[in-house]
Amino acid sequence: MPFGKLPVGLAGCGYWGRNLARNLYQMGHLHAVCDTSAKALKEVKASYRGVKTTRDFADLLKDTKLKAVAVAAPAADHYDLARRALLAGKDVFVEKPLALRVPQAEELVELARARKRVLMVGHILEYHPAILKLKGLVDAGELGDIHYVYSNRLNLGKVRQEENILWSFAPHDISVILLLVGAMPEWASTSGQHYLQHDVADVTMTCLSFPGKARAHIFVSWLHPFKEQKLVVVGSKKMAVFDDVIKEGKLKIFDKGIEWKDGRPVTRQTAESTLFFPETEPLREELAHFVECVRSRKTPRTDGANGLRVLRVLDACQRSIAGNGQPVRL
Q1: What does DSSP say about strands 146-156 and 215-221: parallel, antiparallel, or unpaired?
Q2: pLDDT tens for residues 297-306?
Q3: Which fold has domain 8-125+282-303?
Q4: Among 100, 149, 275, 313, which is least packed, fewest CB within 10 Å?
Q5: Which CATH number is 126-281+312-329 given?
Q6: pLDDT higher than 80, residue 269
């Protein structure tokens, strides 16, 4: 099917699934929506003419017109729904995380390989124009050697009960950090605390140690007085700041650092540049990439192996929380 619409079934049309439904419909690919909520399906019928609705996921799998399935259900259901879709011969897009357990993710990656199916994970920031530009600058050596990366993803709510803040917020930052550093960490250390619900962490702080001297720090919280989504990359030549909360000028490059003169450290501060990008929705770019991969049978940038790497880091962080912050080797 090289042209025209690619019939896609959407599993889950809640808080984030609505955004997938809107984009897929506008792109001409939304064929059917499955959700357990009658209210959600009523809204789909009212908003998207001609789109089928069902409360039974099996209906999507039996639909021979459907070429692909997008999974935006709660994280605990990702593995089961993705597995069933792959076994039914569908190409699959799964929102992060790919699964909640490493063996489950490994099974999905192997199943997609064996069935020759496209498996893509929704690490949306890897499709953000500012992150793609930043990746290009890093690869070109503009920032020099990466010393450290730190990210803050903070807000008041939306508090989840089925997953803690680490699993809800941190996958975004982990995926970007792995992309920029170009390596897996050697160990992870995470401390977390729960204030609102027993055993569901509201705040976590993570340290990742990479081969060589590179380090990364990730601070996530849904118990914070203001919204902040900021990533800072400190290199040996230049520094970069990605601020996803502001509307324009999300990426800044700072030509500053420390130089040694006569055996003494001296601060170097020269140019500061702000980069602007066309108005694009990263989710639209991400879904367009998925459709392209389904049509061309090429491997997605954020394929199952990519999702598995992020999950391995998340798993190490979770085990570190259980061990009161003790480092866990990957």
Answers
A1: parallel
A2: 999 999 999 9
A3: Rossmann fold (3.40.50)
A4: 275
A5: 3.30.360.10
A6: no
